[in-house]
Write a structure and sequence with these properties.
mainly alpha; Arc Repressor Mutant, subunit A; Tetracycline Repressor, domain 2; 2 domains; 9 helices; 71% helix; 0% strand; elongated
Length: 196
């Protein structure tokens, strides 16, 4: 008679994700996840097969969470330029301090190395940019009735990623406030939002 699972795969992947965020991707071993989850390493090998598959499953779980978070926040923000800024600021909230952000970049490296995980990132980009385009669709360029051009969501997302990177070199203040200020200035500079 087969043993009943004490922890679901989701519980194990949550433990693995916490381990990755705390100690970096190199710390994700069957032995470390066994200690973190309370399951034996052999049980984890039976469930996930190889370390590469465990890493992929862990990061797929992180992408699932980011997809859900993006959709949830996106549904709650107003369909305005300010709503677009708030969406990206809220997505920045969990980056934490510079050490946590730097560890996150190591995890991103793992996403970039795996074609399946890169595809998840590309899928998320499309969904995020669609939300940003929806927020900005009702905006008009300052001083004219001309609407903001389609595809501006990608430009705003690109500015967001750049603001995160520049903040990381000089992490003054919290990242969420930095992002909000940077995006407001960007939208004002292109005439798609009020002055910051």
């Amino acid at each position: 008679m087969p043993r009943t699972k004490i922890l679901t795969d989701g519980d194990v992947l949550e433990a693995a994700l916490r381990l990755m965020h705390a100690s970096g991707p190199q710390a994700l071993t069957f032995a470390a996840v066994a200690r973190a989850s309370g399951l034996s390493a052999s049980t984890l090998v039976q469930r996930f097969g190889t370390k590469a598959l465990l890493v992929r499953a862990t990061l797929q779980r992180a992408w699932d969470q980011l997809d859900d978070k993006t959709a949830r926040i996106g549904a709650a923000v107003p369909r305005t330029a300010a709503g677009a800024v708030e969406l990206l600021a809220a997505l920045s909230r969990d980056y934490g301090d510079i050490e946590a952000y730097a560890e996150g970049l190591l995890i991103l490296r793992e996403d970039l190395r795996d074609p399946a995980l890169r595809a998840r990132g590309a899928h998320w980009k499309v969904a995020l940019c669609r939300l940003l385009d929806d927020c900005l669709a009702g905006s008009a360029l300052a001083g004219s009735a001309k609407p903001v051009p389609p595809g501006i969501g990608l430009l705003l997302a690109t500015q967001w990623q750049g603001s995160l990177l520049w903040w990381s070199f000089d992490p003054q203040g919290d990242v969420e406030s930095h992002v909000r200020d940077s995006l407001r200035r960007f939208l004002a500079a292109i005439g798609a939002g009020p002055p910051p």
